[in-house]
Design brief:
With 468 residues, this protein is an alpha/beta fold. The chain has 2 domains: 258 residues, Glycogen Phosphorylase B (Rossmann fold), CATH 3.40.50.2000; 183 residues, 3-Layer(aba) Sandwich (Rossmann fold), CATH 3.40.50.2000. 36% of the residues lie in helices and 20% in strands. The protein is built from 16 helices and 17 strands. Strand 8 and strand 9 form a beta hairpin. The chain is globular and about 65 Å long. Belongs to the glycosyltransferase 1 family. Bacterial/plant glycogen synthase subfamily.
């Protein structure tokens, strides 16, 4: 079965969030099951593309409204990713040093049109197309409605919602940029008087998935305006829990961390990584180390951190290390915290892949008071490295973490508030003091299997029903 994944991100080529991790891992595990899963994404000017060489596979031109735009499909010369990678190169449009900006409508529309024009040229087109998030949301519509792609409209399309908060809205004034279609069907593009790529994908895709069962349920009540649409399309919607790439995230072989370890050597391994973190960031390795890794945005509850940290650090009996970047006001508040708590708190504003691995390996607890978490991968990474997560009871966090009070292995808070998160941290601190129970839990969580294999099998069965 030949499957083409279409995405704006894919690790390790370009990563902004968890979307990249999913698209960089799922095809590899699908290929292990006997598929031919491939990925097509934009060609960005970044570290990956500068450090690798590519060959031109296909060349043509697309119309974006009245503009005639040349594009190329590039392939990676030395591919060790575990799946075929194709990059859409459009000079002056996609070849930026960033993935997203505040004006992406034309960029990603050009990307989608170029992908479909290339697919249309293939002698052996994919048996199924799998689109990811709103940047690819017009693909299902164009396959179904645009005259130029009528020969492709029998190809089943699966569309995965990674985060329904972002929908790619743009004005009907730009409808002329979409390849010509029967205008009586323009309503398929519309939601709330705007063209809405996410809504169009939900309407036109053969199957709609989310990245966890609980997130699918939550979207029925909170989907940033799409609740009624998802309710009307509920029969083709299903939640499939994401997995993690256990080859990349493996403390036994991880080349990024200070000392490798397994379940039997977790105590000495984590101690070595914690020691490095504490020496590097001026913290005390004898205190429980709490960490956060991620985007500093409201969705992640990051705006709560200055108040949370101020309160829990008063007694100086824990340490906190934060790795992330995001909204300037949140960053400023967290940087200012160091003035009052420099001996127990530090941060790295930005993102560093190597450092993130060491933090997972060295921290005792990972804090995730997210307001929105469709699946969450960080809590799965932390389990893999023997780091106990503190999570809000939503989305994929609810599906993957059970509280210690219910014979579980994590700390689950009831809501994303300052008080609830402070209580969760204090509960974790008390659990840390129960030395043997804490150590046993660290060893146990490393055995929990959240690999992509099961999710890949679930998608395999879903694909088969559509193709048949």
């Amino acid at each position: 079965m030949k499957v083409l994944h279409i995405s704006a991100e894919c690790y390790p080529i370009a990563k902004v969030g968890g979307l990249a991790d999913v698209v960089g891992a799922l095809p590899k595990y699908q290929n292990d099951l006997g598929n031919t899963s491939q990925v097509v994404m934009p060609f960005y000017q970044n570290k990956f593309t500068k450090n690798h060489t590519f060959s031109k596979l296909f060349e043509a031109e697309i119309y974006l409204g009245e503009a005639l735009i040349p594009f190329q499909i590039m392939t990676l010369d030395q591919n060790t990713l575990g799946y075929d990678l194709f990059l859409v190169h459009i000079e002056g449009v996609l070849d930026t040093d960033y993935v997203y900006s505040h004006n992406d409508t034309k960029r990603f529309l050009a990307f989608q049109i170029a992908v479909l024009d290339w697919v249309k040229s293939l002698k052996n087109p994919p048996a199924l197309i799998h689109c990811h998030d709103h940047h690819t949301g017009l693909v299902p519509f164009m396959l179904q409605e645009s005259f130029t792609y009528k020969n492709l409209n029998k190809i089943p399309v699966v569309f995965t919602i990674h985060n329904a908060q972002y929908q790619g809205w743009f004005s009907h004034d730009l409808v002329g940029l979409i390849p010509e279609f029967d205008f009586t069907n323009v309503g398929l593009l519309d939601w709330n008087h705007q063209i809405n790529p996410l809504a169009a994908a939900i309407k036109c895709a053969w199957k709609v998935t989310t990245v966890s069962p609980s997130y699918m349920e939550e979207l029925k009540e909170k989907a940033n305006g799409l609740e009624a649409l998802l309710a009307s399309e509920h029969q083709k919607c299903v939640g499939v829990l994401n997995g993690i790439d256990t080859e990349v995230w493996n403390p036994k072989t991880d080349e990024f961390i200070v000392k490798n370890y397994t379940r039997t050597s977790v105590l000495s391994g984590k101690k070595a990584n914690k020691k490095w973190l504490c020496e590097t960031y001026n913290l005390d390795p004898n205190k429980p180390l709490f960490a956060f890794i991620g985007r500093l945005v409201l969705e992640k509850g990051a705006d709560l951190f200055p108040a949370i940290f101020n309160e829990v650090l008063q007694h100086k009996d824990i340490s906190i290390l934060l790795l992330g970047s995001g909204e300037a006001s949140i960053e400023d508040g967290l940087i200012q915290l160091r003035e009052n708590h420099s001996d127990v708190y530090n941060n790295y504003i930005g993102y560093d892949e190597k450092l993130s691995h060491i933090v997972y390996a060295g921290a005792d607890f990972l804090i995730m008071p997210s307001r929105v978490e469709p699946c969450g991968l960080n809590q799965m990474y932390s389990l893999r490295y023997g780091t106990i997560p503190i999570v809000n009871n939503i989305g994929g966090l609810k599906d993957t973490i059970t509280d210690i009070s219910k014979n579980g292995f994590g700390i689950v808070i009831p809501e994303a508030t300052v008080n609830a998160t402070v209580d969760g941290i204090l509960k974790a601190k008390a659990f840390y003091a129960k030395t043997e129970k804490f150590k046993d839990t660290q060893k146990y969580i490393m055995t929990i299997d959240h690999s992509w294999l099961q999710s890949a099998k679930t998608y395999q069965e879903l694909y088969k029903t559509l193709i048949q």
